[in-house]
Amino acid sequence: MRITEHPIIEFRRGNPVSFTFDGNPVTGYEGETIAAALHAAGVRVLSHSYKHKRPRGFFCAIGNCSSCLMKVNGVSNVRICITPVKEGDLVEMQQGRGELVAQD
Amino acid sequence: MRCSREGVSLLRKTEIAVVGGGPAGLSAALTAVRQGANVTLVDRDPILGGQLVKQTHMFFGSKRQYAAIRGIDIPAELIAALEKEGGDRINMLLDTTVLGYYDDGSLLIEKDEQARVLYPERVIFATGAAEKMLPFPGNDLPGVYGAGAVQTLMNVYGIKPGNRVLMIGAGNIGLIVSYQLVQAGVEVAAIIEGAPKIGGYLVHASKIRRAGIPILTSHTIVEAKGAESVEGAVICKLDENWNSIPGTEQTLDVDVICLAVGLSPLTELVWQACCEQVYVPELGGYVPKRNERMQTSLPNIYVAGDVAGIEEASSAMICGKIAGLYAADDLGYSNNMEQLSAEFNRELNELRAGEAGAKIRQGLEKLSGGGRVC
Which ipTM was obtained for this model? Predict the structure, then answer.
């Protein structure tokens, strides 16, 4: 799903970055968001509605709609559409409203 | 977010805080630092430029308003100017979210999972807008995307949103994004529009027609099909009273439904600060009242860009300059006021003249209630 040829834009992708989504290895690129990397990998369902458990996907891409909240490195409710992907990130589908993490 | 036991830490003072680093915020910050003020520019995204970073089409207007320059090339110019001319008077905080405004004029901000407080003497809210939703069964399925999100995926990150798209809305955004989808190698099944005529500029609509994409006016979406994500869309014709005509339903084989049905100003912080607001449909919904200096009902708070009324990037940049100019003026940085103010107002009036600006002019009239607004 990555665009390789474009009449106007030359995409300068950063170095490849390895992370996991629900335990599965995914490759993204430095400089892109977690949501972008997951979308490129074909992941369309990002969360589920609290009550009816309906699937939710990418929607606003500006950190506004809360459709993409995930657990990243143990922290719940991360807006993955505005969070840059980092090497070794542990990204997980969040269950329900997530949980608070106690400070060490 | 992790909250430290010590609570809120790291106080920082600044003369002007600009919230939002899109066209309006960047222009406000640049104008204010040029006048001599200290500015802190805050944006929740890792990249500055707001929606400009995905505008691959060329802008209209005069050279001063970046005509014939692609939107994607504008932020770099503004950021370079900010760095060069701002020196140590500009501080850019990216990946940083403004969580709230307090009565003492301070802003609670979050960066690197730490809450901090920013004490500005003046605030310019340039928070932009969010995509409007459309009610239809299945509108919450993955694959129903806002037009801005589709642009982010394909024009910023070089990722296709899907294989075949139904575009809803034949305003300028719907037309432009459809053309950009074609450029990205994605098929556009159709553009549907509830109104009986195309809302966007003819120049954009002609490009779409030449690309062979049908624009179906007086059409709406009935439902999105699919279990885990969009697998199709049912559309139908509307009569002159916007009622569905039974028997005209057709199913399109698409995996993306793109919404380009308008924008709402992102006024949460403006509401929270208790700036007076007025409902003006022509400007996208509730917008803050302000004077010709872009100053709201709270004298220390200014607004610029889509948060002050949905318009477009060129006018957002000029409103940003006006807000930056007067916020700085208010702090005593008052160089060349008459000349600059006349220049900015002239540019703005030029942009809003003519048929394309009629709706904005009407909206601003409603907002001002007879007084002068910018």
Answer: 0.94
